[in-house]
Write a structure and sequence with these properties.
It is a single chain. This protein has about 850 residues and is an alpha/beta fold. Among the domains are: about 405-560, Rossmann fold, CATH 3.40.50.360; about 575-725, Beta Barrel (Elongation Factor Tu (Ef-tu), domain 3), CATH 2.40.30.10; about 730-874, Nucleotide-binding domain of ferredoxin-NADP reductase (FNR) module (Rossmann fold). Helices cover about 45% and strands about 15% of the residues. The chain is built from 31 helices and 24 strands. The strands form four sheets. It has a seven-stranded antiparallel β-sheet, with helices on one face. Strands 8, 9, 10, 11, 12 and 13 form a six-stranded parallel β-sheet that branches. Strands 17-16-19-14-15-18 form a six-stranded antiparallel β-sheet. α6 crosses α8 (about 180-205) and α8 crosses α15.
Length: about 850
């Protein structure tokens, strides 16, 4: 249960906070090399031609600008040791908290070209820190950074194997296919970058939360210093190299103003140019005398008070990182340096807490670590994408499992037959689906069957069952599926007395994991043997849901039980439908194009309102031709086995599959699996004479059209055939009486609602309430004419629309529900049935919360149980 909770939290946070973290990762990677990029694109500002004379001293530079640019108020002057490096001045400028750094020729004090790229990196910094939306964005990025720590720790916990090896932990297996490869990429690369993400998150929170910052100082045993403002040039924390100020900067200004007061301000006003020049001359002479050739740059802060002191900071010839600065104060009365604070003399904990930005970006640990930290940050979008892919694949498998359950019919059983107990251990739903289909073929042979998950099995059930079948997946690196872990830990920890029982095991796995292939199923088989049970036949291994392996299970079961059993597979039979019409529903929409598709069949097709159309997508001719060219094959070649051309044979094959050596085109085609299918809610009823679908185009990050949406909206020509099968969706079928219905949906979810209302209109049932949401009424009011006609003819008693972009404050369907809470209660009291169709993320979950708020959780649960709250969400 603990692991299940962690898994649910891991994927939930992944599909919510993952996008923000991906954005933060990319912007952080860019920003980590800000200084190097700035200097690279501003060579004319940072380097000059060396001259055969000394560089201007700080006093000479100050005097030059007092004469040539008296309006500039100089905060600090920076001198570089290298003859070809520019000097710089930092001047006060309105709107620049830390002043503006201007690069100058160190021999003439001539202003060099303005530094390019500052605004870009300032934008990237704000995007990284607060998404450019201020305090609210800062709270979002801070929360997402905390979630990143949870991702790393929970991810390591979830993939922790029973047997450890370097290969299991760190080796990506390119030969894996489909979901296995995606999972392997997600998990292994996640392990590679785990240490970097922990470091990035723990240091990034330094700027997010005061309590975290205070905790870091306490944990590392460093006294939090009184913050001060600094002014400087290249290499300092001002100008284009300024990174973060945070609260320290504000506290420093407030504290300084409090200390100086009115007297200090009067001293600043009265400080003369001659006094400043004297201070700069004395400071330069004193510093040069003590540290000659032992620095790469030195910054002199223009004194603000006539207190006989001048503060400076300098960088070692080879600094540890960009913030490794030494500090000192020049006593102008004695011409001595005092309060010298050398960075190299600090303890490690003090270095870390005084250099948080270099630690965060990785330069504190050297250029190699910084480079790999940058790559790790750039990899963040990978986990968002692969996590979503795994989530969608898992969800699709659950849909197939529900279908298998729905196909388990009730038939008369042989009164003399012994009951079968079928248990499944499933991670992604394939094992559960096969368990129910096994039950279906046994029941068709008049056998009494009970299907249960292994986690719900009790010792008593096992000890009383005489015939036990187990369908079990192996997960990860040989583990039991998450929900089956307790079964293995508790029930399988010691043998039971099962000498009275016969058993058989079908175990699912992937041969691409040879070390742990089907290992959990084998452990179950061994445990039953150790418990005294008699095997009906040896364990059946199934590689990646291979239909031939599944048929081996059916054959072995039929022979052992001496029954005639139907073929068991997960193949699907499609009918031919002609695409008669395709029309864009939302021209000029802010969203992706959505199309109305109308298909016709040459046979009498039967379906009910609420059912699903499952489509077999195909490859475009361009994609097939590129594949054939890659493998030097003739597209006109006719296969002897099918009589089809090679192009016709490849139309629905997964061309991304790994190709094994082949001697003939037939061998090539045989090793290619079919493309995965796609499902769409049907928007019409049979009496309308055609099947209507609503399909919105989807695009990936490379702007390539999605598999199903691209096939139906772009690649298939109108007038050509589409392979389609109707899948019953009993849980969303229309009630068979005239009770009121409330139809709620958004986007392409209008399809399922249209079929329901169409059926109600045919029956002349008028107590229908439609609540529909999209972006803009002008562009996204799907089937506007039909819906308005229903309203005008009183077929729709109520209609409420939520077009989110038509007003400054976005309005969604769940807002409509809350605004009409009293009416919702009234309809429910009248026996209304609620139908929800559309996106599960956002709309359906928000509607569910709104209904709970309006009706109460107990009432909503009762509606579900009574079949009065039905959903078709995706």
């Amino acid at each position: 249960m603990f692991k299940k909770i962690f898994f649910q939290l891991h994927w939930f946070f992944g599909i919510t906070a993952g996008l923000i973290l991906a954005l933060m990762g990319v912007t952080g990677a860019i920003y980590s090399y800000e200084q190097q990029i700035i200097k690279l694109i501003n060579q004319e500002s940072y380097t000059v031609v060396a001259e055969q004379r000394p560089k201007l001293t700080p006093a000479e530079i100050y005097q030059h600008f007092q004469q040539e640019h008296p309006d500039l108020k100089i905060n600090s002057i920076t001198i570089a040791a290298q003859p070809t490096d520019s000097s710089s001045i930092n001047v006060a400028k309105e709107g620049e908290r830390r002043g503006l750094t201007m690069m100058i020729n160190p021999y003439s004090a001539e202003l060099l070209p303005e530094i390019k790229g500052r605004k870009f990196f300032a934008f990237v910094q704000q995007l990284h820190r607060n998404l450019t939306v201020g305090p609210v964005g800062k709270q979002i990025t801070g929360a997402c950074t905390l979630i990143l720590i949870f991702f790393v720790l929970s991810g390591l916990y979830l993939r922790w194997p029973k047997k450890h090896s370097f290969k299991q932990w760190f080796s990506v297996k390119p030969k894996l296919k489909g979901r296995n490869f995606i999972w392997d990429l997600h998990a292994v690369v996640g392990t590679w970058v785990a240490i970097f993400y922990l470091m990035l998150a723990c240091t990034g929170l330094y700027w997010s939360y005061d309590w975290w910052r205070n905790g870091m100082f306490k944990v590392l045993g460093v006294e939090r210093p009184q913050p001060q403002m600094q002014a400087g040039g290249p290499g300092s924390n001002t100008g284009p190299n300024a990174q973060r100020e945070g609260r320290e900067g504000r506290e420093g200004r407030e504290g300084r103003e409090g200390r100086e007061g009115r007297e200090g301000r009067e001293e600043r006003i009265s400080l003369q140019t001659e006094q400043i020049q004297f201070a700069l001359n004395q400071s330069w002479s004193t510093f040069d005398q003590q540290f000659k050739n032992q620095f790469s740059s030195v910054t002199f802060t223009i004194p603000k008070r006539a207190n006989g002191e001048l503060e400076l900071s300098f960088v070692d010839p080879v600094p540890q990182h960009e913030r490794a600065r030494n500090k000192a104060t020049v006593d102008l009365n004695t011409n001595q340096l005092k309060d010298v604070e050398l960075y190299e003399d600090k303890k490690l904990n003090e270095k870390i807490m005084s250099s948080m930005l270099p630690v965060h970006r990785g330069s504190f640990f050297g250029p190699i670590y910084q480079f790999f930290a940058m790559l790790a940050a750039l990899a963040m979008p990978l986990f968002f994408v692969t996590g979503w892919m795994l989530y969608l694949k898992r969800r699709k498998q659950k849909q197939l499992t529900r279908e298998a359950k729905q196909n388990l019919a009730v038939v008369d059983v042989d009164p003399n037959a012994k009951p079968w107990l079928i248990a499944y251990a499933s991670q992604t739903g394939v094992s559960e689906q096969l368990a129910w289909r096994t039950a279906s073929i046994l029941q068709a042979a008049r056998q009494p069957v009970t299907v249960k998950s292994v986690q719900s099995l009790t010792t008593n059930e096992l000890q009383t069952a005489s015939q036990i079948l187990v369908v079990a997946s192996t997960y990860g690196t040989g583990e039991a599926p998450d929900l089956a872990a307790n079964f293995e830990k508790k029930l399988m920890s010691h043998p039971l007395n099962l000498s009275h029982a016969q058993f058989a095991v079908m175990t699912l796995g992937s041969r691409e994991y040879p070390d742990t292939y089907c290992s959990f199923g084998h452990r179950i088989y061994d445990w039953f043997n150790a418990s005294g049970a008699t095997p009906l036949f040896n364990v059946i291994e199934v590689d990646n849901a291979n239909n031939q392996d599944i048929q081996n299970w059916t054959d072995a079961l039929a022979q052992a039980a001496q029954l005639e059993l139907a073929t068991l597979s997960i193949d699907k039979v499609f009918d031919q439908w002609k695409l008669q019409k395709r029309a864009l529903l939302n021209p000029n929409s802010l969203g992706q194009p959505a199309y109305n598709l109308e298909l016709e069949s040459d046979h009498d097709a039967i379906w009910q309102a609420g059912d699903i159309a499952e489509i077999q997508p195909g490859n475009s001719i361009e994609r097939i031709q590129a594949f054939l060219q890659q493998h030097n094959l003739d597209e006109a070649l006719v296969l002897a086995t099918t009589g089809q051309t090679l192009v016709e044979s490849l139309w629905n094959k997964n061309l991304n599959s790994e190709i094994q050596p082949f001697a003939t085109a037939e061998e090539l085609v045989e090793q290619l699996e079919n493309l995965p299918t796609r499902e769409y809610s049907i928007a019409s009823i049979p009496t309308q004479g055609m099947m209507r679908l609503v399909v919105r185009q989807q695009r990936d990050e490379q702007q390539q059209l999605g598999l199903g949406s691209g096939w139906l909206t772009h690649h298939v020509a109108v007038g050509t055939q589409v392979q389609l099968r109707i899948r019953t969706n009993e849980s969303f079928h229309l009630i068979d009486d005239n009770r009121p219905i409330i139809c709620i949906g958004n986007g392409t979810g209008i399809a399922g609602l249209m079929s329901l209302i169409s059926a109600r209109v045919r029956l002349d049932y008028t107590d229908n309430w439609l609540i529909f949401g999209e972006r803009q009424r002008e562009h996204d009011f799907f089937y506007k004419e039909t819906i308005e006609a229903w309203q005008n003819t009183a077929m729709l008693k109520r209609i409420d629309l939520a077009f989110s972009r038509d007003q400054p404050e976005k309005v969604y369907v769940h807002h409509i529900l809350r605004q009409n809470a009293d009416e919702v209660v009234k309809w429910i009291h009248q026996g209304a049935v609620i139908y929800v169709c559309g996106s599960i993320n956002g709309m359906a979950s928000d509607v569910d919360l709104a209904l709970i708020e309006i009706l109460g959780e107990t009432t909503v649960d009762e509606l579900r149980q009574a079949g009065r709250y039905r959903r078709d969400v995706y």
